[in-house]
Design goal:
It contains two helices and eight strands; from the N terminus they run E-E-H-E-E-E-E-E-E-H. It is mainly β. The chain has two domains: about 80 residues, Chitinase A, domain 3 (Roll); about 55 residues, Thrombin, subunit H, CATH 2.40.10. Strands 2-1-8-3 form a four-stranded antiparallel β-sheet, with helices on one face. Strands 4-7-6-5 form a four-stranded antiparallel β-sheet, with no helix packed on it. The longest helix is centred in the N-terminal third of the chain and has 7 residues.
C-alpha cells in the first residue's frame, strides 16, 4: 500500500536542529492521519506515494514548520498575578491567564514561562521551535486505511508537535501555535 490522502501512517523519526542537536526522537511507531490535522503540510507532501519501509530526510525551514519567532508574542507580566509555585518552563493556556494580564495577549495561545524576575514573569506565546530550521529523518513503519471516526475527527489523536489551544475563530492563532 502506498500513502495517499485519508490513510493512516505509523512513523518513527529523529528530529534535529541544523546544528545536529536531537530535539525529538520517536523510537516506537506513532500513527498520524494523512489529509487531516496531524502532520505539517510539507511532511504530508513528502510522504505521498511512499510505502512501508521508506526512509525520508527532510529539511524544514521555519515557515514550513512552526513559523518565525514573533517578538509581539512575548509579554512581561507582574509576578504577583501568578501563583507562588510557578517555575520557568511551565506552560499556561491563554484562556487561563489572570484577567489583569495584558489584554493584547491572545487567549487562544499556549504560553511558556521563560523567565522569572523578582517583580515580573516573561510569557512566551511562540512555539518552542519557532524560528528554527529543522532536519527530520523518518521511516514509514505501517500504512492502513483510516477509520470513519478518524476521518470525521481529522486526527488519530496525535499530531506533529501539536496541541491546539482554544477554538475561538475570532482570535486567530499565530503561525506555529502548535505543540506535540
Amino acid at each position: 500500500m502506498e500513502i495517499t490522502s485519508d490513510c493512516v501512517v505509523a512513523l518513527t523519526w529523529t528530529l534535529k536542529d541544523t546544528l545536529g542537536e536531537v530535539l525529538d526522537e520517536l523510537d516506537e511507531p506513532v500513527e498520524f492521519l494523512m489529509g487531516g490535522n496531524d502532520l505539517l503540510p510539507k511532511i504530508e507532501h513528502a510522504l505521498m506515494g511512499h510505502g512501508v519501509g521508506a526512509k525520508l530526510d527532510l529539511h524544514l525551514e521555519p515557515e514550513d514548520a512552526f513559523g518565525d519567532f514573533q517578538e509581539e508574542l512575548l509579554f512581561l507580566e507582574p509576578k504577583d498575578l501568578f501563583p507562588a509555585e510557578i517555575q520557568e518552563g511551565m506552560t499556561i493556556e491563554g484562556s487561563a491567564l489572570p484577567a489583569a494580564c495584558n489584554p493584547e495577549a491572545p487567549r487562544n495561545a499556549l504560553y511558556t514561562i521563560t523567565e522569572i524576575y523578582p517583580e515580573h514573569v516573561v510569557l512566551d506565546g511562540n512555539h518552542p521551535l519557532a524560528g528554527i530550521a529543522l532536519r527530520l529523518s523518518l521511516r514509514i513503519n505501517q500504512i492502513r486505511s483510516a477509520t470513519e471516526q478518524e476521518l470525521q475527527a481529522g486526527t488519530c489523536g496525535t499530531g506533529f508537535f501539536k496541541i491546539e489551544v482554544g477554538a475561538d475563530e475570532s482570535d486567530t492563532l499565530p503561525p506555529g501555535s502548535h505543540l506535540h
